[in-house]
Amino acid sequence: MLRARIFTAIVMLCLFLSALLYLSAIFWMVLLLALTVTGSWEWSRLARFSVKNSIAYLLLTALVGGELLFILSRTVVTDPYSPLFLSLYVASVIFWTLIVPYLLKSRYAIRNPALLAIAGWLVLLPTSLALYQLRAIDPMLLLGFMATVWISDTAAYFSGRAFGKHKLAPNISPGKTWEGVGGALAAVFIYALLWSYFAAEETETKFLMPLLLIIAILGIVGDLFESLMKRQAGLKDSGNVLPGHGGILDRIDALTSTLPVAVLSILFLQPKL
Hints:
The structure is a single chain. By secondary structure, the protein is mainly alpha-helical. The protein has one domain. The protein has ten helices and two strands; from the N terminus they run ααααααββαααα. It has a two-stranded antiparallel ribbon. β1 and β2 form a beta hairpin. α6 crosses α8.
């Protein structure tokens, strides 16, 4: 199992970097739409939709997601910092900073199918748009934000295994500890110092440290929320498309809660640069 996880992770990283750096805008959009649609199918499993409703949700997500990505692709050609989807990014931030913490604390299970559908779109659509817009602004900027999540996850895993004694959320994800959170924040703090040291803009260095620490915290929130949804659905993984890693949502859970915040911060900061 470990060998499969490592092999899959290496292949995924190589494919992602190739796509990030070399795919044309249209094929990048197609890739994001494919990931979004796959994620919507996995979300249907977590939401326990019927097969009929799952298919309808997948098709509707494809139509809405494709249209939003197409509109954004035309807009960023002239202005990569376009605030066109600012309201959707704000809605995502509200969802992750206010609604999800309440759901995690209360372990409340959403039963209403319409609310579950909306929650799935708030998880998937802003993430897809953020991936497209951040790449249009600067592919290396997108990579830097994603690396924050990867560093946080890795540091949390190893520090949790080495020092973990106090459970973070034992009823949701028993393997996570407060020591792991501390290790994640420490690693991201060092990463932010290095990024700030090499950053060219003074304004960028002032906002970078708090932003990356917020991203690390929200990444943990995103991870816990998906764990909560899987536990309530009685599932171990969101899917099985990635050997040793589960589904798409299992791999992007921390990105769904962080990238909309990242792009929103960049859009607010840009006029000051």
